[in-house]
Q: What sequence folds into this?
């Protein structure tokens, strides 16, 4: 029989190897994209418009379009998602209806993004007559993002100790005052994590915007939420599959910009979480 020290060493080795197996491919992929794409990064590439069949120029319209869609997704999904999480965590009882709602949310999180794209095409583009626009794309991405935000926000709210609520109510606070002044500030780091995870998924999706908002090429920036726009994920798909003779460095340069965009959201979320975790009292 193995001693406790030997078992501990074996477990440590197995866990370390598992972590290495997960991390090493990610580092390799990131490093490869950086090496292949850094040569394309320049001020002209980041701020210019594509030309010459998109084989030259920059990705500025795609960057602006991705920012518009991410902001629109946040406006649509964050208030509804956090509000639904508050209801499920703080107001709804443990009954068949709420259990069915939670199961539906979990199932919605597993639906392929192309299905959301077809749904957005049918509802927002055709039925509501929004056309292929930033509004239709943001609404579609917002619906797709909702399950992630609701699930993570609800778990963050449930993680706040029940004693906090009891103390607030015993001091004369109403349920809403307790939620607003006690529960939400303590759950904010977890809620922010869920929001960023959802927005990151939205920023990197291609299928939903393919049906609802993305344009193959636009020589101008969008002027309103009813305009079409280019977006980094779809632009990367187009120049990688639809444009013959596209320089590889431009493809990887676009991928590097998209990756930097997503990683920047992660860094921002980490800084915000760290700030609010320092203010926790538990």
A:
């Amino acid at each position: 029989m193995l001693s406790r020290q030997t078992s501990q060493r074996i477990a440590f080795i197995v866990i370390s190897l598992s972590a290495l197996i997960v991390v090493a491919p990610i580092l390799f992929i990131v490093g490869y994209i950086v090496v292949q794409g850094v040569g394309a990064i320049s001020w002209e590439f980041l701020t210019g418009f594509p030309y010459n069949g998109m084989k030259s120029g920059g990705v500025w319209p795609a960057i602006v379009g991705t920012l518009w869609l991410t902001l629109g997704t946040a406006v649509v999904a964050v208030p509804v998602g956090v509000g639904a999480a508050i209801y499920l965590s703080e107001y709804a009882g443990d009954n068949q209806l709420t259990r069915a709602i939670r199961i539906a949310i979990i199932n919605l999180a597993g639906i392929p993004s192309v299905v959301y794209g077809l749904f957005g095409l049918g509802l927002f583009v055709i039925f509501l007559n929004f056309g292929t626009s930033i509004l239709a794309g943001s609404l579609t991405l917002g619906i797709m993002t909702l399950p992630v935000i609701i699930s993570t926000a609800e778990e963050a709210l449930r993680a706040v100790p029940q004693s906090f609520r009891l103390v607030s109510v015993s001091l004369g606070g109403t349920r809403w005052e307790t939620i607003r002044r006690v529960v939400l500030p303590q759950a904010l780091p977890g809620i922010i994590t869920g929001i960023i995870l959802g927005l990151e998924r939205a920023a990197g999706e291609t299928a939903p915007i393919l049906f609802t908002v993305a344009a193959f090429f636009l020589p101008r920036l969008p002027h309103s939420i009813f305009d079409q726009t280019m977006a980094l994920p779809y632009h990367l798909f187009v120049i990688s599959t639809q444009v013959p003779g596209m320089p590889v460095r431009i493809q990887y340069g676009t991928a590097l910009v998209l990756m930097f965009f997503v990683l920047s959201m992660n860094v921002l979320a980490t800084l915000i979480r760290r700030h609010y975790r320092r203010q926790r009292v538990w």
Summary: The CA atoms of residues 87 and 255 lie 39 Å apart. Residues 55-277 form a domain with the MetI-like fold fold (CATH 1.10.3720.10). The longest helix spans residues 4-37. DSSP finds eleven helices and no strands in the chain.
